[in-house]
Specification:
The protein is rod-shaped. The protein folds into two domains: 4-64, no CATH class; 89-119, no CATH class. The protein has helices at residues 4-14, 19-23, 29-34, 40-54, 57-64, and strands at residues 95-97, 104-106. It has 119 residues and is mostly helical.
Protein backbone atom coordinates (compact mmCIF):
# COMPACT_ATOMS: atom_id res chain seq x y z
CA UNK A 1 0.00 0.00 0.00
CA UNK A 2 1.40 3.34 -1.07
CA UNK A 3 1.99 6.10 1.47
CA UNK A 4 1.23 9.74 0.69
CA UNK A 5 4.15 11.01 2.81
CA UNK A 6 6.59 8.83 0.90
CA UNK A 7 5.14 10.09 -2.37
CA UNK A 8 5.48 13.69 -1.15
CA UNK A 9 9.14 13.21 -0.14
CA UNK A 10 9.94 11.56 -3.47
CA UNK A 11 8.14 14.36 -5.33
CA UNK A 12 10.08 16.99 -3.41
CA UNK A 13 13.57 15.52 -3.80
CA UNK A 14 13.37 13.41 -7.00
CA UNK A 15 10.23 14.78 -8.61
CA UNK A 16 12.09 16.31 -11.52
CA UNK A 17 12.91 12.77 -12.64
CA UNK A 18 9.40 11.46 -12.03
CA UNK A 19 10.37 9.02 -9.29
CA UNK A 20 7.19 9.78 -7.34
CA UNK A 21 5.08 8.87 -10.37
CA UNK A 22 6.86 5.54 -10.76
CA UNK A 23 6.36 4.91 -7.02
CA UNK A 24 2.62 5.53 -7.46
CA UNK A 25 2.52 3.15 -10.45
CA UNK A 26 1.86 5.84 -13.07
CA UNK A 27 3.53 5.56 -16.45
CA UNK A 28 3.49 9.37 -16.82
CA UNK A 29 6.80 9.44 -14.99
CA UNK A 30 8.43 8.86 -18.38
CA UNK A 31 7.46 12.40 -19.42
CA UNK A 32 9.22 13.73 -16.33
CA UNK A 33 12.37 11.88 -17.43
CA UNK A 34 12.14 13.11 -21.02
CA UNK A 35 11.66 16.77 -20.05
CA UNK A 36 13.79 16.87 -16.89
CA UNK A 37 16.28 19.22 -18.57
CA UNK A 38 13.55 21.94 -18.80
CA UNK A 39 12.93 22.10 -15.02
CA UNK A 40 9.19 22.11 -15.76
CA UNK A 41 8.75 18.63 -14.23
CA UNK A 42 10.46 19.89 -11.07
CA UNK A 43 7.95 22.71 -10.72
CA UNK A 44 5.04 20.34 -11.35
CA UNK A 45 6.48 17.85 -8.86
CA UNK A 46 6.74 20.57 -6.20
CA UNK A 47 3.06 21.38 -6.70
CA UNK A 48 2.21 17.68 -6.55
CA UNK A 49 4.22 17.36 -3.35
CA UNK A 50 2.09 20.07 -1.76
CA UNK A 51 -1.10 18.43 -3.05
CA UNK A 52 -0.10 15.06 -1.60
CA UNK A 53 0.39 16.68 1.79
CA UNK A 54 -2.71 18.88 1.71
CA UNK A 55 -5.21 16.31 0.45
CA UNK A 56 -6.50 13.87 3.02
CA UNK A 57 -5.53 10.27 3.50
CA UNK A 58 -8.91 9.10 2.21
CA UNK A 59 -8.52 10.99 -1.07
CA UNK A 60 -5.02 9.64 -1.57
CA UNK A 61 -6.07 6.05 -0.85
CA UNK A 62 -9.05 6.33 -3.16
CA UNK A 63 -6.92 7.66 -6.01
CA UNK A 64 -3.68 5.69 -5.70
CA UNK A 65 -4.43 2.62 -3.56
CA UNK A 66 -7.78 1.74 -5.17
CA UNK A 67 -9.49 1.79 -1.79
CA UNK A 68 -13.15 2.72 -2.00
CA UNK A 69 -14.04 5.12 0.78
CA UNK A 70 -17.64 4.97 1.94
CA UNK A 71 -19.37 8.30 1.42
CA UNK A 72 -22.13 7.38 3.85
CA UNK A 73 -22.92 10.25 6.15
CA UNK A 74 -23.23 9.82 9.89
CA UNK A 75 -26.77 11.27 9.77
CA UNK A 76 -28.24 8.85 7.22
CA UNK A 77 -30.07 6.87 9.90
CA UNK A 78 -31.11 9.88 11.96
CA UNK A 79 -34.78 9.93 12.99
CA UNK A 80 -36.21 13.13 14.41
CA UNK A 81 -38.36 13.18 17.54
CA UNK A 82 -40.18 16.27 16.29
CA UNK A 83 -43.86 15.80 15.47
CA UNK A 84 -44.89 16.00 11.85
CA UNK A 85 -47.15 18.99 11.35
CA UNK A 86 -49.62 18.67 8.53
CA UNK A 87 -51.22 21.68 6.93
CA UNK A 88 -54.96 21.57 7.52
CA UNK A 89 -55.83 24.94 6.09
CA UNK A 90 -54.91 26.91 3.01
CA UNK A 91 -54.40 30.07 5.10
CA UNK A 92 -51.08 31.14 6.53
CA UNK A 93 -50.03 34.19 8.54
CA UNK A 94 -49.14 36.03 5.35
CA UNK A 95 -51.79 34.73 2.99
CA UNK A 96 -53.34 31.72 1.28
CA UNK A 97 -51.45 28.71 -0.04
CA UNK A 98 -52.51 27.36 -3.42
CA UNK A 99 -53.48 23.67 -3.22
CA UNK A 100 -52.23 23.06 -6.79
CA UNK A 101 -48.80 24.69 -6.91
CA UNK A 102 -48.09 25.57 -3.26
CA UNK A 103 -47.55 29.27 -4.01
CA UNK A 104 -48.20 31.60 -1.06
CA UNK A 105 -50.57 34.36 -2.18
CA UNK A 106 -51.52 37.62 -0.54
CA UNK A 107 -54.13 37.50 2.21
CA UNK A 108 -57.65 37.86 0.84
CA UNK A 109 -56.76 36.54 -2.64
CA UNK A 110 -59.42 34.41 -4.35
CA UNK A 111 -57.13 33.06 -7.10
CA UNK A 112 -53.51 31.91 -7.16
CA UNK A 113 -51.10 34.51 -8.58
CA UNK A 114 -48.89 31.77 -10.00
CA UNK A 115 -51.21 29.22 -11.61
CA UNK A 116 -54.61 31.00 -11.57
CA UNK A 117 -56.49 28.25 -9.71
CA UNK A 118 -59.25 29.19 -7.25
CA UNK A 119 -58.07 29.20 -3.62
Amino acid sequence: MKNRYTAAVLAFFLGGLGVHKFYLGKWTGIFYLIFCWTYVPSIIALIECILYLVNGEEDFNEKYNNVVVSSKSHNDNYVSNQPIITQTSNLTDTGAVCPECGHINEAGSNFCESCGKKL
